[in-house]
Predict the 3D structure of the following.
Amino acid sequence: MPLDELKITQAIIERFTEKLKSALNLDVAIVGAGPSGMVASYYLAKQGHNVAIFEKKLSIGGGMWGGGMMFNQIVVQKEGKRILDEFGVKTVPYREGYFTADAIEATTVICAKACQAGVKVFNCISVEDVVVREGRVCGLVINWSPVEVTGLYVDPLVVRARYVVDATGHTTEVMKVIERKMGARLLTPSGKIEGERSLWAEVAETTTLENTKEAYPGIFVSGMAANATFGSYRMGPIFGGMLLSGERVAQLIHKRLQQEN
Ligand code: 48H
């Protein structure tokens, strides 16, 4: 049977439309397909929740692809290794308490497992704003990333979500929009984004977990966005805290969703 270009085109348009339509009314919308966002999405989807990730870049993985300064290896501690083991990512012991993993394997396997668990990943889509009702975030305003990059005046679309995760890393983009536009008090000590501090791996890894929490009603922060929002250090290319933060935010949101059902 000769290939019909029209059928190929129709297949793509119809299937993508189905995928997008199934993400219009989400349990959890995650912004950013870095390590913390992808891990969070996996655990939430495994619990049966309707989850999507919106990633502004063409590629998933955020800062994990590049390891440290593009030496594409990552380091994790024992606790972080537990998560990589769960995903089936190979780790190699280095010195006592330190393990390495291939950044490419870690990124691709985590994303593949998330997709297979039912997560819908939308790349090339930027989250440019949020929907807030009665003091609570309840949706995301999305647009094609090339619209943002080229500065075209094109209106966005909206997805509804019971919970949102800001997993945008150092830039903590969603929280910044809320701070700027809502003029509301965030759930941080000063009521504002506290800001990321300089590098201190030991402290940063612990505080990443402590800071993984709700930062404004309806929106949680994970990974580097958690430390940026609540004012802690960066940690350099050690990724245990990012993976554990993804797991933690999934547990917290799952509990909330259960309580509300
Ligand atoms: C859609 C967006 C938007 C937007 C950004 O930076 P990430 O890898 O995030 P984490 O927190 O999971 O991991 C951080 C880690 O990679 C890292 O940078 C570390 C450990 N640094 C330590 C140090 O000292 O430097 O991924 C965030 C993702 C990226 O893919 C962005 O493109 C994406 O979020 N993103 N997607 N809409 N508005 N903003």
Q: What stands out?
A: The chain has one domain: 24-68+103-260. The chain has nine helices and 13 strands. The mean pLDDT is 97.
